[in-house]
Amino acid sequence: MSAVPAVVLVGPMGVGKSTVGRLLAERLGVGYRDTDDDIVAEQGREISEIFLDEGEPVFRTMEKRAVRTALAEHDGVVALGGGAVLDPDTRALLAGHRVVYLSMEVEEAVRRTGLNVARPLLAVNPRKQWRELMEARRHLYEEVATAVVPTDGRTPEEVTQAAFDAL
Ligand code: S3P
């Protein structure tokens, strides 16, 4: 286990976890890690390919393992994929960490991500998909969060500052 619990970023796809995560890590003088990147590196293929080849449940198993490993090995900033909080064991694992939920409204999400074939969950009818995703997940993000930072209308630098202040 790492000596200092990591700062974890959660929130929906496209909210800026990677950008803010890197900026926040720089600001804190610690490393940055992203569980999606870990899965891509380990598997040697993109997340969209894993979804297509093996389906979402297989991806979720990989994700659960990647989160557990990242939190055990890394004491900097760790960004999780948008759906990582769906898993109850992952949510339990987050207890005791500083968890910043980067939030955004549905319309902002639609505007930022649009129709996105690289994001398998948004490949058809993104507005409807976003509404459903947010309804299913908002309370899970809130459950694990020790701080909530709204991102609508804010630059990555402003969001980073707000996240830093909230730690
Ligand atoms: C997903 C979010 C993605 C990626 C996968 C599934 C989700 O990560 O893990 O496409 O279920 O919301 P980002 O939130 O980093 O885009």
From TrEMBL:
InterPro entries from the UniProt entry: P-loop_NTPase (IPR027417), Shikimate/glucono_kinase (IPR031322), Shikimate_kinase/TSH1 (IPR000623), Shikimate_kinase_CS (IPR023000)
GO MF, one annotated term: ATP binding
Subcellular compartments: Cytoplasm
Cofactor binding comment, as recorded: Binds 1 Mg(2+) ion per subunit.
Pathway in which the depicted protein is active: Metabolic intermediate biosynthesis; chorismate biosynthesis; chorismate from D-erythrose 4-phosphate and phosphoenolpyruvate: step 5/7
Major place of residence: cytoplasm
Function: Catalyzes the specific phosphorylation of the 3-hydroxyl group of shikimic acid using ATP as a cosubstrate.
Subunit composition and interactions: Monomer.
Listed name of the protein: Shikimate kinase
Organism the protein comes from: Streptomyces actinomycinicus
